[in-house]
Design a protein that fits this description.
Pathway: Amino-acid biosynthesis; L-arginine biosynthesis; L-arginine from L-ornithine and carbamoyl phosphate: step 2/3
Largest sheet: 5 strands, parallel
Protein name: Argininosuccinate synthase
Number of strands: 14
Family: Belongs to the argininosuccinate synthase family. Type 1 subfamily.
Order of helices and strands: EHEHEHHEHEHHEEEEEHEEHHHEEHH
Structural class: alpha/beta
Shape: elongated
Distance between the termini: 82 Å
Catalytic activity: L-citrulline + L-aspartate + ATP = 2-(N(omega)-L-arginino)succinate + AMP + diphosphate + H(+)
Pfam families: Arginosuc_syn_C, Arginosuc_synth
Length: 399
């Protein structure tokens, strides 16, 4: 029986050429797998037909937008996942979803190999291969761009020689990856970190410097999950899409940063994540209202580690799975409404309310009705500062 290779297929030049390239190099049949994570662009049927026309024996296409929203974006939101405190894990979140579908397709089609189009300089090669190692360790992984010298020039020549039905004439100056949760842009003139991004870099967000009327929005949460906008109940997918539209129209979620890649280099990335940034901002503020202080302090460390694990391709790791349980528990009271003003590139919280609120007006007020017993403060401060006071006395004696 002829061996089969399952290919992570995008429909673009590199992965379209990879179908024939892999077949020639290995003699195996290629099954192309394309996943819709909300990236937009071509119809899935057109993508499937292109894969067949390029030589795939089968093409699997899946509309995974709801799955992506429910099982990947929501956990990231509940963990306030921001790599290096800024990046909401746009590409990193979609890779384990794609890996899951690749592993499922490999089992179904009896494949012995999986292929991807990643280079050797990026994070995605790690995310794909570490994920496959966890889900289907028996599979061999092929990486034509990284390991077989399939450069863009060679890919174009191969496509022209074979008469493949793909457009090889247009070359964007940027490398772009996008999905429901945001958009990532790199390469080109952005590789000079002194160059500022120009407006044509952006697609998900309007220019925040241009005049726009402010947009007020109320986001409702249940156990850390956004369930409604302005009182209208929505699915997680619909919530993210609506916040992408409304926050994007106000220029919210533009991020220009130099980040630490897993492979050891620093890279300059420009991101757009309007919905993600607005929703994480709202979720963090509702946590401030409903999560007890020590739990909140500890969760901030868990959130950071959770984000690092996902960025580093360890979605299916034991530690990530264990932290998921903590995040689930920590969100049990994160229920209520957050009012935000979207304007000028910012998502600013202006109000919050919750039946699970730990905010006590009678304790917090400085006006009539204050129930806080201020006479207790002196003794509290004496006991709280006693260790530092004792150490200070000792140090003066021995100085």
């Amino acid at each position: 029986m002829t061996e089969r290779v399952v290919l992570a297929y995008s429909g673009g030049l590199d992965t379209s050429v990879a179908i024939g390239w892999i077949a020639e190099e290995t003699g195996a049949e290629v099954v192309a797998v394309a996943i819709d994570c909300g990236q937009g662009g071509e119809d899935l049927d057109a993508v499937r037909q292109r894969a067949i026309d390029c030589g795939a024996v089968e093409a699997v296409v899946a509309d995974a937008r709801d799955e992506f929203a429910n099982e990947y974006c929501l956990p990231a939101l509940r963990a306030n996942a921001l790599y290096m405190d800024r990046y909401p894990l746009v590409s990193a979140l979609s890779r384990p979803l794609i890996v899951k579908h690749l592993a499922d397709a490999a089992r179904y089609h009896g494949a012995t190999m999986v292929a991807h189009g990643c280079t050797g300089k990026g994070n995605d090669q790690v995310r794909f291969e570490a994920g496959l190692a966890a889900l289907f360790p028996e599979l061999k992984v092929l990486a034509p761009v990284r390991d077989s010298g399939m450069t863009r020039d060679k890919a174009i020549a191969f496509a022209e020689e074979k008469g493949l039905p793909i457009d090889v004439s247009k070359k964007s100056p940027y490398s772009i990856d996008q999905n429901l949760f945001g958009r990532a842009v790199e390469t080109g003139f952005l590789e000079d970190i002194w160059n500022g991004p120009i407006e044509d870099v952006y697609s998900y967000t309007a220019n925040p410097a241009e005049p726009h009327e402010a947009d007020e929005v109320v986001i409702s949460f249940e156990n850390g999950v956004p369930t409604a906008i302005d009182g209208k109940e929505l699915t997680p997918l619909q919530v993210i899409e609506e916040m992408n539209r409304r926050a994007g129209a106000q220029g919210v979620g533009r991020i220009d940063m130099v980040e630490d890649r897993l492979v050891g280099i620093k890279s300059r990335e420009v991101y757009e994540a309007p919905g993600a940034i607005a929703l994480i901002t709202a979720h963090q503020e509702l946590e401030n209202v409903t999560v007890e202080r020590e739990l909140a302090r500890f969760k901030r460390g868990v959130d950071q580690r959770w984000g690092e694990l996902v960025y580093d391709g360890l979605w299916f790791s034991p530690l990530k799975n264990a932290l998921d349980g903590f995040v689930e528990e920590a969100n049990q009271h994160v229920t209520g409404d957050v009012r935000m003003e979207l304007h000028g590139g910012r998502a600013v919280v202006t109000g919050r309310r919750s039946e699970a609120s730990l905010y006590n007006y009678e304790l917090a007020t400085y006006d009539t009705g204050d129930t806080f017993d201020q006479s207790l403060a002196r003794g509290f401060i004496d006991i709280w500062s006693m260790p530092a006071k004792i150490a200070s006395v000792r140090d003066r004696k021995h100085s």
